[in-house]
Amino acid sequence: MAILSVNILYHKKILDTVQVRNTATFGACCCAAIFWVFRECGSLAGHMAYEITGEETRQLLALAVAQQFFGCFVNAAHWLDTWLMRSLASFITGLFIERYFGTSEYLFRIRKVLNSVCDYESRWGQVVLRPLKSDCKVKQELHFDARNSFTCSPLYAEILFKKGHFVVRMLAKRLGKEPFFQVVQKILSVSMQFSQQQKEPINWQHMTVSTESFFRTVSNVTGQELPTFLEQWIYGGGHANFQVSFK
């Protein structure tokens, strides 16, 4: 589809929005970038054979713009870290949905995703966001090796990214909105700085993020160490299951 061409969504056209001094406005800047796409697409409506309508279309466009920040401009250091880029993009899209479509719509979609993650883990086994390269436990519980992009099941990868969205959401609530966006802005500002020095290949590594470097940035920016969080939700699988009864 021409609407998703690089001419419209090319990241350099929206990167100016991340150069903000006040970290509290980062979410608003992402929304502004999303509406920039809507405006550009609207100006092309007379030259296109279809019209941008429907809630699903707008949400997919929002996700596409968010992935220009995390997934295009800032990339994963390894396949095992891809969950982080996809999850950050989904989380930002969720903020857009909550703000412009309402809290009820956002919670409804969160509930649907939560059910799909829990159903998969209950039926097929635990989903580990960041399995260690030397960890054979994940491979033993599955009929494929999730540590390699060529052998990982597409359904497993889909659930992996959905679960990552919840983990990033939990992290944002645990750190607080302001500290979390300070972490996000730190990652973007470092990538922006080294993107101006692309002639030196050694600088390319600073435009990638691994799970370890992300949580190292969390510790440096917020001063919080999260060993239990990492053990339970990043390097471990499963989900909480509560049984409630009344007498």
Automatic annotation (TrEMBL):
Pfam families: Peptidase_M1 (PF01433). Transmembrane segments: none annotated. Signal peptide: none annotated. Residues 54-233 form the Peptidase M1 membrane alanine aminopeptidase domain. GO terms for molecular function: chromatin binding; metallopeptidase activity; RNA polymerase II general transcription initiation factor activity; transcription cis-regulatory region binding; zinc ion binding. GO terms for cellular component: transcription factor TFIID complex. InterPro entries: Peptidase_M1_dom (IPR014782), Peptidase_M4/M1_CTD_sf (IPR027268), TAF2 (IPR037813). GO terms for biological process: transcription initiation at RNA polymerase II promoter. This is Peptidase_M1 domain-containing protein. It comes from Ascaris lumbricoides.
